[in-house]
Amino acid sequence: MKKSDLELYTDYLLSTFGAATATGLSAMVDGDVSHDQITRFLSAQDYTSKDLWQQVKRTIRSVERDDGVLIFDDTIQEKAWTDESELMCWHFDHCSGRTVRGINLLNALYYCNGTSIPVAFELVKKPIQYSCLATKKLKRKSEKTKNEMMREMIQVCIDNALKFRFVLMDSWFSSEGNFEFITGKGRHFIAALKDNRLIALSEEDKKKKHFVRVDELDFPEQSAVRGWLKGYAKEVLVVRQVFKNKDDSTGILHLVCSDLTGNYDVITTTYKKRWQVEVFHKSLKSNANLAKSPTRTLRTQSNHVFMAIYATFKLECLSITSKLNPFALCRKLLINASRSAYAQLQLFRTAA
Q: What is the pLDDT of residues 151-197, one digit of tens each?
């Protein structure tokens, strides 16, 4: 990896407000770097999660603490008109409730002391093609599930000696296998539960297989209930959080925590940090031009995703030093670009 090319390309992703192209980058630096050089850089090697760790490690070491949290979530960048491949294929988007074509990205975000840093990522690839008997259509599937990917990423973070206490995740990753893996590694989890998850409130109920749905439990106000989730051997804490949505409707969220020393306030306050991964994904798409690359091959598309993640990390670092959020920083860049373009337009008019 050429560090200079990496820094130039990622700076370009944060500076351009149209499609990110090799020719556009070359034009930005007045031809000092050719578009062929950028194309070779993007296609020379595969940039992976290991390369990301090498870039963020120094910053991580300066901010990490034992009470840090590791947040997992996936996001889909829709690319409806790009040719289909094992990377650019159909995925179910649980936010919109429909299947979309694009890139599915699983991220591990480290959050500590007000700082969000991506520490690992995996691209969901579906190389296996098969014919669906029900629909008679050709479909794709991955060689491993996102839950398996998440467990591998947690193991990598542990191997990298990353300091964290909790793993935070939404209900899509709240499987017994993930719970057992996390606690088996000496860490704790806080996860959202679907309303139909079953819980026993005593060991006697567990032995008798007397389970009830979490949404049917009678919770004391702002308190935690101890119990055993069906399929998971260890005792857990479950809380019910009631909140108001923007449209004034009432929302209910059930959370499960493996740390029995916790309470309602600790669990809900800690899980609130999971929102940082949503902010990260928004910044990745809005500020780092994740979708605006015309790359065509599997390697260059994958590498562009890596570059966008690293660019988002660089923006977060600038945000810390400037005390402006990443969106305000990009807004300033856009305003300055508009002023420059306006001034150039006036020069053209004067010359005419």
A: 999 999 999 999 999 999 999 999 999 999 999 999 999 999 999 99
Under a CB-based contact definition with an 8 Å cutoff, are residues 253 and 192 in contact?
A: yes
What are the C-alpha distances in Å from 167 to residues 8, 182, 256, 274?
A: 34, 8, 12, 9
Q: SS3 of 75, please? A: strand
In angstroms, the CA 107 to CA 308 distance is 13
H/E stretch holding 232 reads: none
Q: Pick from 207, 240, 200: which is nearest to 221 by CA?
A: 240
In order of 102, 112, 272, 286, the CA distances from 71 in angstroms are 23, 11, 11, 20
For 181, phi then psi, to 5°, come to: -65, -45
Q: Where are the beta strands (DSSP E) in 164-203?
A: 166-169, 188-193, 198-200
Summarised one tens digit per residue, pLDDT across range 296-344 is 899 999 999 999 999 999 999 999 899 899 999 999 999 999 999 999 9
Contacting residues for 265 by C-beta, under 8 A, at least 6 apart:
222
User: Residue 198: beta bridge partners?
Assistant: 213
For residues 327 and 283, is the Cβ–Cβ distance under 8 A?
yes
**Cβ distance 277 to 20 under 8 Å?**
no
Q: What is the pTM of this model?
A: 0.94
CA distances (Å), origin 59, targets 12, 158, 311 = 22, 17, 14
Check the CA dihedral 92-97-103-109 and report its sign: negative
Tell me 134's DSSP state.
Answer: T
Nearest Cα to 264, choosing from 240, 287, 290?
240
pLDDT at 352 over 80: no
Angle at CA of residue 196, ends 69 and 99, nearest 5°: 75
Q: How far apart (Å, rounded) are the C-alpha atoms in residues 148 and 119?
A: 17
Q: What are phi and psi of 286, to 5 degrees?
A: -85, -35
Q: CA 42 to CA 248: how far, in whole Å?
A: 47
Contacts of 348 (CB under 8 A, 6+ apart): none
